[in-house]
Amino acid sequence: xxxIKEDLNWFDKFFRGLTxxxxxxxCKLFYRLKVYGLENIPMEGNTIxxxxxxxxxxxxxxxxxxxxxMRFMSKAELAKNPFFKYLGRIMNVIxxxxxxxxxxxxxxxxxxxxxxxxxxxxPEGTRNGLEKNDGEIKKGASYLALKxxxxxxxxxxxxxxxxxxAYIVYGKPLDLSKYQDIKIGDKEENEVSDMLKEExxxxxxxxxxxxxxxAKN
Length: 217
Prior knowledge:
Layout lengths: L9 H21 L3 E3 L10 E5 L6 H8 L5 E5 L6 H9 L3 E3 L6 H12 L3 E4 L7 H4 L7 H9 L2 E8 L8 E4 L15 H18 L2 H11 L1
Parallel strand pairs: 1-7, 2-5, 2-6, 3-4, 3-5
Antiparallel strand pairs: 6-7
Helix pairs in contact: 1-2, 6-7
């Protein structure tokens, strides 16, 4: 896996590779992770990956299964722990202060996308976000996509718990062509957010998994 930034020393790179290897084995052994839709992932160009967020394993499932590297956005509270702060640095995490408008994190995300790279976001904002946010998702992903003309890949994740099979489904990038040449405002951001929410809900449903399994047989 090629990483977005390579400004790390040899030990950081070694530990990053070791960590990814251990996490990959962990997902296969303890979650029997099954992946669908890899053919939907654009291998070039600025891309935003957005999935539902139910468990602490969600980001790991995406990280070990996606053939593209991405800079995940994560809550700044994790950086208070020295180990997670170090892990965040070698994994290119963008730490976000959720209690305020974090301009630094926003600028970093914009620059990453404008450079043609990818960012991972859980648009619910927190675990079980759709339940906590009255069915709404935050507009950060739609804003970034429209501002940088990035592709958005919706992701559905089903985690039934340890020692039970987990699923991750990569959907086709959202069709945002109608927004390319118009002035972007709240209306457009809300429309893209609604599209994204519908796709994430569809992709993370047991019914979708059943359809994909039947198509493979």
